[in-house]
Design a protein that fits this description.
- The structure holds 2 protein chains of 2 kinds.
- By secondary structure, chain A is mainly alpha-helical.
- Chain A has a domain of 232 residues.
- Chain A has 14 helices and 8 strands.
- In chain A, the strands form 4 sheets. Chain A has a two-stranded antiparallel ribbon with strand order 1-2.
- In chain A, a hairpin with a 2-residue loop joins strand 6 and strand 7.
- By secondary structure, chain B is α/β, with parallel strands linked by helices.
- Chain B is built from 10 helices and 10 strands.
- Chain B has a 6-stranded mixed beta sheet with strand order 6-7-8-3-9-10, sandwiched between helices. Chain B has a 4-stranded antiparallel beta sheet with strand order 2-1-4-5, covered by helices on one side.
- The chains are: A mainly alpha, B alpha/beta.
- At the A-B interface, helix 6, helix 7, helix 8, helix 9 and helix 14 of A face helix 2, helix 3, helix 4 and helix 5 of B.
């Protein structure tokens, strides 16, 4: 590593560590919360990237794993069953449970590719949501559409993250505590993705993505490798679901709609499928941009003296246009993976 | 890598009465083929004779409707390409099927997958055993690139190689699975005379190092010079089998290639 890239790495590290404090001081608590959610989306996008980016399996129901993780945390750490299990049990449990669901989704889709796979995964996502919606009778498990509330707040050992801590005169409120917890999770997820990508397994996934028949003829057990990709991707979703439930204190089926799945897929595609930096960038941009566009009202007032269009309508319009332009101008994503870039430039 | 410990002689592959239909089309009918260890066997025939279909049955891509295939004395798994490769049959494709956006070296490293073991946990925790195995994979992949004569291209993207080098890379990737039988589907297609000669040398070298070869080819002269035995298919049926001289003098073969009356 040369001096310049080391400098850039240190700069990035300082920026990431200082960001919540600066945001808190300048923009307030709400914006730090947006950053927290951005980190959760990064985690989700990294997970989906394993399925879509590495193994090349189009998954439109990814939010199902997020839901599994969230409900796993919610049911075992809330008054719903009066269970209050700790985080370090529930996160791995959520990850494992999500992985099982990943295999469950993967098994019937093994022979499918492309559009057909997308349709089945879409259905799977909806099935999970509808199950959660209806599992309140005859035995009440999920509390149906009302969702589970009063979920135990996230705490790591003796540190209760909902408290405000003071370290050397600096105030560290809940949202910043959460930011750092999520940051650790994202850091681990990035590390995990890197190691998987460069491993024997990652290479096998890439081979399946490139040419499944040739891969099978070289002795790759495509069935097991695809299931592994679904399971690994799902674990990330399960962990982020648990963090989401503990952070929100409330989960309901409404949070796990198809739109969420599509949004996560957009993050992966827009950022650059298969490339970790791209996926992180895509997730941060797409989760922060819609919030930032709320500022369109202020901008109109500044430019025209009055608000012409309701910003809450306008922001989704602008957001949509931004996505369309993005895909037209840079179809391979903002920071594409080496292999993807070639695919696009080959055809041109 | 040494692959010379395989003994010479004895039947490595024994296909008996293989049949395959696609709807109304009889692609293969009662095709039998015996292939000895340490031999080069040619599979020839006019276009549409069923050569590639037979390859696809052999390598588990198609399930045969009739017949049995034994490999090293045991029945070959049916319809499971990866299991066939694990048992020791590796193949190349008529229309080259490389992982064209991966590097040349990575292509061969994928071929090593079936003989290596590192799993998810090894990858995630980067254990010493995983690192050692990964280094060994890369080393043997480089060795194979050297073996087929494209070591200098290791870091190039597979899809950017010249046609002849892509064919060589496909062979290197297949050899990486440590096959007992290497099945080549028209390996010389599109090659010029010099490349064909080089390819023939490579095929002989692979055979001499202990891997039996089964190859499909159109160029009858080239096949006759290279192969120990030749099987001829026409309209999905075996019409001749024997040494190159016997087969090429066979009236049915001359008829199939040149038309009725030529014999």
């Amino acid at each position: 590593m040369n001096a310049r890239s080391r400098f850039i790495n240190w700069g990035a590290a300082v920026l990431v560590l200082a960001l919540p404090f600066a945001t808190h001081a300048l923009l307030g608590q709400g914006w730090v919360r947006i950053l927290d959610f951005a980190l959760l989306y990064v985690l989700l996008a990294l997970g989906l990237n394993i399925v879509v980016g590495y193994a090349g399996l189009l998954d439109l129901g990814y939010v199902a794993f997020f839901a599994v993780g969230a409900y796993c945390y919610a049911l075992f750490a809330s008054p719903q069953f009066d269970l209050h299990w700790p985080l370090w049990v529930l996160l791995p449990m959520g990850a494992l449970l999500a992985a099982c669901f990943g295999v469950l989704l993967g098994t019937p889709t093994l022979g499918l590719r492309g559009d057909y796979l997308a349709i089945v995964t879409l259905g799977f996502g909806e099935i999970i949501r509808i199950f959660l919606n209806n599992l309140n009778a005859p035995v009440n498990i999920t509390n149906g559409p009302q969702g589970v509330s009063l979920i135990d707040p996230l705490h790591v050992g003796p540190w209760f993250l909902e408290k405000t801590y003071h370290v050397g005169g600096i105030e560290i409120p809940l949202v910043i505590n959460i930011y750092f917890l999520f940051l650790v999770a994202v850091g681990l997820a990035i590390r995990l993705s890197q190691r998987l990508e460069g491993s024997r397994i990652g290479r096998a996934w890439a081979a399946i993505r490139e040419d499944e028949l040739a891969a099978a003829s070289m002795g790759l057990n495509t069935r097991n490798l695809k299931l592994l990709a679904f399971a690994m991707g799902a674990t990330f979703g399960g962990v982020s679901g648990g963090l989401f439930a503990g952070f929100q204190g409330f989960v309901s089926p409404e949070s796990f709609t198809l739109q969420e799945s599509v949004m996560i897929l957009c993050m992966v595609v827009l950022g650059g499928m298969g490339n970790i930096a791209g996926v992180v960038l895509g997730a941060v941009l797409l989760s922060v941009l819609p919030e930032a566009l709320r500022g369109l009202g202020g901008l109109q007032e500044f430019l025209f003296g009055k608000v012409w269009v309701d910003p809450s309508n306008l922001r989704l319009l602008v957001f949509g246009i931004a996505l369309v332009l993005m895909m037209l101008l840079r179809p391979e994503g903002l920071l594409p993976a080496r292999a993807r870039q070639r695919e696009f430039h080959e055809s041109q | 890598m040494s692959r010379s410990e395989v003994s010479q002689g004895g039947a490595l592959l024994k296909a008996v009465g293989v049949g395959k239909r696609f709807g109304g089309l009889r692609a293969l009918h009662d095709v039998s083929l015996v292939l000895g260890e340490g031999t080069i066997t040619g599979l020839i025939g006019p276009n549409g004779a069923g050569k590639t279909t037979f390859f696809n049955v052999l390598t588990g891509i198609y399930k045969p409707d009739a017949g049995t295939v034994h490999f090293s004395g045991e029945p070959l798994p049916v319809g499971r390409p990866h299991a066939v490769a694990t048992r020791g049959i590796a193949r190349t494709f008529q229309n080259i099927r490389l992982f064209s956006n991966m590097t040349v070296l990575e292509n061969v490293m994928v071929g090593r997958h079936v003989r290596t073991h590192a799993g998810v946990l090894g990858a995630v925790f980067k254990t010493a055993a995983t690192c050692r195995e990964e280094a060994a994979i890369a080393a043997s992949a480089r060795g194979l690139l050297d073996y087929v004569g494209i070591a200098g291209q290791a870091q190039r993207i597979a899809g950017t190689l010249s046609y002849g080098d892509q064919r060589r890379l496909e062979i290197a990737r297949a050899l990486a699975t440590e096959p007992k039988l290497l099945a080549l589907d028209e390996p010389a297609a599109g090659m010029n005379a010099t490349e064909r000669t080089q390819l023939a040398d490579l095929v002989r070298r692979v055979r001499d190092d202990g891997t039996a070869i089964l190859l499909i080819e159109h160029d009858v002269k080239w096949v006759a010079r290279l192969c120990d035995r030749i099987t001829v298919l026409d309209y999905g049926e075996r019409i001749a089998e024997g040494s190159p001289q016997e087969v090429l003098a066979h009236p049915k073969v001359i008829e199939a290639y040149l038309g009725r009356g030529a014999a």
